[in-house]
Write a structure and sequence with these properties.
homodimer; 434 Repressor (Amino-terminal Domain); Rossmann fold; 3 domains; about 15% strand; alpha/beta; 6-stranded mixed beta sheet; elongated; DNA-binding; 12 strands
Chain lengths: ~325, ~325
DNA sequence: CAGCCCCTTGACAACGTTGTCCACCCCTCC
DNA sequence: GGAGGGGTGGACAACGTTGTCAAGGGGCTG
């Protein structure tokens, strides 16, 4: 900028004014400055600007894994809103490790992001206290913060969706419905299990619950265990997209009644079509990002807790009757 | 930092030394400083650090769309390498718009990213000249830069893969093979078309080529057009994952011989399993990122042009014989 | 005991930008 | 013709950090 100023024969500040479109510069001077800028290929140093102004126009996003379609969709929606507001997105995947989540958040904070959207992996977020006190708005998405922290949160109706899934299967005559899902340490898994259990009421049987990792081997083993029971399940409820896919693969085209949590591409093309309880990841991302920007604009109301509805999409797999 | 210094009763520089783990600080002093840091909840201001040191420890990534599984996979791999090197990732989706691509790159440059990985949307990258001259390393992935720019590039063997697909279909008796793919303005589409055409040789018939957007409606219309020909195709070659999915959906479980470019989840569970030419997006991301960091470490050899092999995975759909 | 060296610490400038404040010029109006 | 005012332009400090250089103090050696 100094070079531009001397090249254009003006003061530093005048260049700054032109670059920022501030008023009070003679058109001819501005033109001379712009020419110098083009000639020298100058581009403003954002770091210095940030240092001086205190705002980075950067938002941090911590998700579990970009390669998971759910989070990729959420990510894209957040990105769109962020760009719309003239900001940039720093993002990172925690890989479901609390330590990594914290590292990412702290690195983002060291870079003085203006706001954070976090899909937490851990359940202790006291480390955020300082940042929150410093005024950085934080929005939790998909999962709530750990105990003792009350901040904006956008969740899906996990329990309600699980209930819908179970009810739907029961409508089609099923009474023995198994649940395959994540460790209940993960909020969404716990909530879906809760909804499943509540809807089943007296029919609940904990032997029908499987909470092992969604790897092909463990899912295959768990299905073998379930079907070997004296009173085996006639239907399956899978707790998220990964379990649904792993289960379908383990079933190897065997026709078993099934509802999965999370929609996925091609669910309609399988035979039978896979009935799912669908969330809308883009919607969740958009809502979270917009809430964040509302905070950045100064909205200081009490923390909001938004619950997005989910939707049962019948496609055939849930409508298979139980074997006689 | 100033506050920490006065709280600990030391000079600014001593705090800086402790924060950066520089040697030459008495353990007791360091401990006192650390205590003050904890008590005040201090966290280093990266912007100031960047301003002073000139390196941002940030890499910029421009892709087409995070929500596309191919780019999500690539993104994740890049992120992993970047984090491993102690850097952060700024990423943005161009949405296949050259203007947006340029905006993203320029914004990243204004933030003084240390390096860039770009999946280009446009074919004019002269705007990068200045940045390259300034020494910022840039790696192009998935698609090469526009004319007149020779920089590191990581591509897949698009033409070769298309050739493999066609050859495989011909082995199973097909002679009339249609191609559904993107606008050939997109490098990968053009290359795949080239490979398809070369492999077909004299059998090539341009009426069997469709290059309309991969929306459900246009794909349905194009399939109708193709099958209404006097001499309709007996097999389909789809130019990327989106076309494959759109085509399968438009076919509505009609069994037509098909090979798709790009692997996708559940391809094996459809009936018949979908044979594909698979790329490895993680591999591409990893290779591109590692090449970038090699440049950052000072490797200044001539620009590299890496071509990653692709792999035909037969699953059944390509092995359907032509109707008699 | 003097001299030297190492260990530890501190003062200061600089990175590139922007906000504040002031100076100048020319025009208009009294 | 002088005073006031709007429109321009510039000088300077400050943002928070780090690299450079130098100073003080204590132990070791001759």
């Amino acid at each position: 900028m100094k070079d531009v100023a001397s090249a254009a024969g003006v003061a530093l500040k005048t260049v700054s004014r032109v670059v920022n479109g501030e008023p009070g510069v003679h058109p001819a001077t501005a033109e001379r400055v712009r020419t110098a800028i083009d000639r020298l290929g100058y581009s403003r140093n954002e770091s210095a600007r940030v240092l001086r102004r205190g705002r980075t126009a950067t938002i941090g996003l911590v998700i579990e894994d970009v390669a998971d379609p759910f989070y990729a969709g959420l990510s894209r929606a957040v990105e769109d809103v962020v760009i719309q507001h003239g900001c940039l997105l720093l993002s990172g995947s925690s890989g479901e490790e609390p330590g990594r989540e914290r590292e990412l958040v702290e690195t983002f904070c060291a870079r003085r992001v203006d706001g954070l959207i976090v899909v937490p992996a851990g359940d202790d977020h006291t480390y955020l206290r300082g940042e929150l006190a410093a005024g950085t708005p934080v929005v939790f998405a998909d999962r709530p913060p750990g105990a003792g922290l009350d901040v904006d949160t956008v969740l899906a109706d996990n329990a309600g969706g699980a209930g819908q899934a179970v009810r739907h299967l029961m409508t089609h005559g099923h009474r023995r419905i198994a649940f395959l899902g994540d460790d209940p340490a993960i909020f969404t898994a716990a909530e879906r299990l809760r909804g499943y259990r509540a809807e089943l009421g007296g029919l609940f049987d904990e032997r029908l619950v499987s909470m092992r990792p969604p790897s092909p081997e463990t899912v295959r083993a768990e299905l073998a265990r379930l079907f070997a029971l004296d009173d085996p399940p006639t239907a399956l409820f899978t707790g998220n997209g990964r379990y649904t896919v792993a289960t379908l693969r383990a079933l190897a085209r065997r026709r078993v009644a099934l509802v999965g949590f999370d929609d996925f591409e091609l669910a309609d093309l399988l035979d039978p079509g896979v009935s799912v309880v669908a969330q809308d990841p883009s919607w969740m991302g958009r809502v979270a990002a917009e809430l964040l920007f509302r905070r950045l604009r100064g909205d200081s109301g009490p923390p909001q807790h938004i619950e997005l509805p989910v939707r049962l999409i019948p496609r055939g797999s849930a409508e298979l009757p139980p074997p006689p």
